[in-house]
Amino acid sequence: MHKDTTLSLQALRRLPGYYNYLLELRRRGESSVAAPAIARAMGLNEVQVRKDLAAVSSSPGKPRVGFGVADLIDSIGRCLGYHNSEDAVLVGAGRMGRALLSYGGFEAHGVRIVAAFDEDEQVIGQSEGDHPILSVKRLPDICRRMNIHLGIITVPADRAQEACDLLVEGGVLAIWNFAPIHLQVPQGVLLQNENLPAQLALLARRLGERIAKFGEESAGAEEDLRTPSPEDQGETEPQKAPREEFHHG
Amino acid sequence: MHKDTTLSLQALRRLPGYYNYLLELRRRGESSVAAPAIARAMGLNEVQVRKDLAAVSSSPGKPRVGFGVADLIDSIGRCLGYHNSEDAVLVGAGRMGRALLSYGGFEAHGVRIVAAFDEDEQVIGQSEGDHPILSVKRLPDICRRMNIHLGIITVPADRAQEACDLLVEGGVLAIWNFAPIHLQVPQGVLLQNENLPAQLALLARRLGERIAKFGEESAGAEEDLRTPSPEDQGETEPQKAPREEFHHG
DNA sequence: GATAAATCGATAAAATTTTATCGAACTGAA
DNA sequence: TTCAGTTCGATAAAATTTTATCGATTTATC
Predict the structure, then answer these.
(1) Distance of alpha carbon B177 from alpha carbon B98, whole angstroms
(2) Nearest residue to A151 (alpha-carbon basis) of A194, A101, A187, A191
(3) Are B66 and B95 in a shared domain?
(4) Is B232 part of a structural domain of the chain?
(5) Interface contact A111, partner B, CB < 8 A
(6) Which residue in A116, B123, B182, B189 has its CB near the most CB atoms, within 10 A?
(7) How far is the CA of B148 from the CAs of A4, A99, A246, B86, B129, in angstroms?
(8) From the CA of B20, how many Å to the nearest CA of chain A?
(9) Domain housing B40
């Protein structure tokens, strides 16, 4: 029932948020959930959530009940490719690179990092989180042989173009770039930049706007801010009335 | 001349991309740049870029010449708050946490990480990238005293809600969360989730779509894909005709 | 100088995305 | 069984975002 084409780009970006929330519901033992409940928890519009769910769900929601939690988890996972397995390589086994390598969450999202590359003789031959670290000289060849189309760049900014070129040479068609620099890629190669400092700065900016909007009673003030402002969307989710219960104490 | 209100959310998200590209132009010695050139380099629409630049630029662009590179860098930086300095704390000095701590790019974006917290006695007392790692027990108190409103969560998923609650207790009003879990925050607290695996999965999905669309001639195939498809936007930027020259050797 | 090419700003059209509204369907309680 | 309340799907309106078009302006070239 899921027609790929009906999913807007923005909707796609909301799905991972739903996914995590649904996993939590499942942990709590909930077997079904209504769109309005999800909307409240995530600070989104009811209709929007309902539309998103309708677009991915394999079975329609039941009035007065909602959607099956397990069904939704499966549908969203399927839709986002979490059940596939795409191989990827990582270039740059520095701090960030190794953090990603040791992070176990990628397999659950359908991506398997099969190898890491670096140019530092010190780290070549080591391994991190079960991923071998190889010499960057072997990168293009290995990518070709293993038919890898997905690359991650975690090298310093001044080496990023070089790493990028090696990946392209190896036949990689999609690059996830953590270096804060503009990369040149040939036509047909997808490039997604992950500019972490910029993300944080954006959050700081929004925070600043808020504080400015409601007078600033800094030192030791109690929370006075309310009305999460409906301008939010995307990765950001304010809670409108998330009372439910806290699940950690 | 920059009217904060005229900047759409999507435009805000494009600015960091412009920023990096402009920095590169400055390194190359370019003193001015035209909107269409930026658009080509970033795979965006001319008019869109022109509108974005007009919204932030302090001085109008000159026909036949474009905008001043230095001016734009300053304007965008100002607009994104890169010239401010907002203090932040980080919770969770694991791999990802320490990667962020040792990453020098935050200061340049107007955010200063003043301290990190962890509960592991082994790491408490150490420091990473000049940032002391303190006991998480002291978190709320220190945040209150230092009047910190920005928090970063890099703890494992099953401890994230706990970390979140401590930050809120400390008066933090905006939280950047790396744990792949849905967090409950009170009204008025901004929450931005950074779900790295989900981001990569999204890229993998788009790659899969592409490969499916143009037949799949895997093993050792030359690049045959063309026409970057105009569906792209946001963090993603395909190149339409980036010939210029490569700047790395 | 005059002319051609390219860019700008502005306005408006198109596309996408979000939000509102309606009747129908289902559940649980009287 | 009946009724009240909630949620669903669908349609349509509103808002936002992207793209196209046009005349005006400036620079480079002849």
Answers:
(1) 15
(2) A191
(3) no
(4) no
(5) yes
(6) A116
(7) 44, 26, 24, 8, 20
(8) 5
(9) 4-80
The token duo for A68 is 């099956």
Smallest CA–CA distance, residue B1 to chain A, in Å, is 18
Strand D, nucleotides covered by protein (CB < 7 Å): 5-11, 16-21, 24-27
Is the CB atom of residue B2 positioned under 7 angstroms from any atom of strand D? no
> Side chain identity at B211, as an amino acid letter?
I
Q: What is the pLDDT of residues A149-197, one digit of tens each?
A: 999 999 999 999 999 999 999 999 999 999 999 999 999 999 999 999 9
- Cross-chain CB nearest to A201 (options B81, B182, B238): B81
Instruction: Please list, residue by residue across A77-103, b when 16 or more beta carbons sit within 10 angstroms of its beta carbon and e when fewer do.
Output: bebbbbebebbbbbbbbbbbbbbbbeb
> What is the residue-averaged pLDDT of chain B?
87
Rounded to whole angstroms, the distance from the CA of residue A139 to the C1' of nucleotide C17 is: 41
Rounded to a whole number of angstroms, the distance from the CA of A106 to the nearest CA of chain B is 5
Contact by Cβ (8 Å): B116, B132: yes
**Residues A100, B196: C-beta atoms closer than 8 Å:** yes
What is d(CA B128, CA B40) in angstroms, rounded to the nearest whole number?
40
Let me know if residue B215 belongs to a domain. no
Residue A244 DSSP SS3: coil
Q: What is the CATH number of the domain that holds A95?
A: 3.40.50.720
Q: Which of B42, B192, B228 has its CB closest to that of A187?
A: B228
Q: What is the pLDDT of residues B32-67, one digit of tens each?
A: 999 999 999 999 999 999 999 999 999 999 999 999
Interval B113-137: pLDDT, tens: 999 999 999 999 999 999 999 999 9
* Inter-chain touch A171–B240, beta carbons under 8 Å: no
User: How far is it, in rounded angstroms, from Cα B242 to Cα B126?
Assistant: 46
| A65 CB neighbour count, 10 Å cutoff | 11
The shortest CB-CB distance from A185 to any of B165, B211, B239 is to B239
What CATH number corresponds to the domain at position A35? 1.10.10.10
